[in-house]
Specification:
The structure is a homodimer of 213-residue chains. With 213 residues, chain A is of the alpha/beta class. Helices cover 49% and strands 15% of the residues of chain A. Chain A has helices at 5-23, 31-38, 42-51, 64-74, 90-97, 99-103, 133-139, 151-164, 190-212, and strands at residues 28-29, 62-63, 81-86, 106-113, 127-129, 144-147, 168-171, 184-187. A six-stranded parallel beta sheet of chain A has the order 5-4-3-6-7-8. In chain A, helix 8 (151-164) links the parallel strand 6 and strand 7 (168-171). In chain A, helix 1 crosses helix 2, helix 1 runs antiparallel to helix 4 (64-74) and helix 7 runs parallel beside helix 8 (151-164). The first copy, chain A, is globular and about 60 Å long. At the A-B interface, helix 1, helix 5, helix 6, strand 7 and helix 9 of A face helix 1, helix 5, helix 6, strand 7 and helix 9 of B. Chain A binds a DNA duplex (24 and 24 nucleotides) through helix 3.
Chain lengths: 213, 213
Amino acid sequence: MISNKNCIIRLSRYKNALVRFKTLGFVKIFSEYLADAVGVTSAQVRKDFSLFGISGNKRGGYQIDALITKLNSILGKNEVQNVVLVGAGQLGSALMRYNTFEKEGIKIIAAFDIDPSKINLKSPIPILSLAEAALFIETNSIKIAILTVPDMAAQQTFDILIRAGIKGVLNFAPIELKTSSDCIVNNVNLAVELENLIYFVNVTAKEAPLIKI
Amino acid sequence: MISNKNCIIRLSRYKNALVRFKTLGFVKIFSEYLADAVGVTSAQVRKDFSLFGISGNKRGGYQIDALITKLNSILGKNEVQNVVLVGAGQLGSALMRYNTFEKEGIKIIAAFDIDPSKINLKSPIPILSLAEAALFIETNSIKIAILTVPDMAAQQTFDILIRAGIKGVLNFAPIELKTSSDCIVNNVNLAVELENLIYFVNVTAKEAPLIKI
DNA sequence: TAGATTGTTAATCGATTAACAATC
DNA sequence: TAGATTGTTAATCGATTAACAATC
């Protein structure tokens, strides 16, 4: 029932697409249309749903409202998810102001930084000293952290978070964090994403002339 | 030879890890250690390398310097890659200040926004009117764009970019862009990444008590 | 040389897709 | 009813891994 990461990411995408369909006034939807909106096959949609016991009506498709409710429940979106952010540098500060998280029910309730000049208890999201992180995380039972510290500090900061009880980390440092089995790490590396794009654009450009001949 | 996206992303990770090994004074490396640093198997490393004709020395491993050079060449990192950014909102502005790109040889040479109040020709990265984007992209032969506009504007802005000759887009809108076959889209969705993490942390938490019994 | 590591093949694994019976 | 869509099984596809001969 846990399924793989890609499957869960698709559930999020289905949910987002369904919200858009609902905004447009739709009430029911067929797997074919939902698949199209998300860029997968209809078989994939039905398979994913069946893995989570989501069923529709043969010939009648799926009720959008019920589907959104079910997906939100699976994805833990029925309650606000409190997270902390560690590393209030350029990217970290931007994420603190990134209002899409709030819209999606994800609340950064505090940020931490090692640099005393960054500490600011009065900003909309308080920025505290890294030294206070462990206690804060424990007393507030925070399970998820966003890690936006410099590369060289990533592993040691991560270790602090683990010891404080963090169970999931969204890591922006281009480092493979050594983790214990009970903490999950999702890596986001924007430079790598761009490099990837550059690579494929370049190979396609090199190939194109051959095709034209 | 094109290979799949995951393979190319691994090449970027190998490259990053190798640069760190080099910093630490290493000259040679075995597939086993590189695999460990990146979190894959040594067979995977050797397989990836062989796909790109990279060879080492049996019994002697790989020369780090030569390897970095080769990977940089494959990934197009021998020259600075110019890109544009479209949508100078919260996230867009942060990415403009995100110096990791510059460090990685990726230069945002201009940004565009539809909001006249955002236009600023004197900022370090000039912010121009969206109306000027097509001409700018064409005259400068820009192939890659970072798209950070609001969800509802994403598709129409994307269409403008396509017509201007953009071949690769790093898309931050939670929308599946309808693209032509000759433009590649990489999606980054931070809220979805966090949702994913939340999901797996929650299921693990629910399962843990069962394991303890 | 003996031992260790690469390079590559074949086996495994898992995810996606096609296909179709069930059924509304 | 006839037709269309779901739910699920089996087939396909592709990526990862194990294993080992080649060889430094």
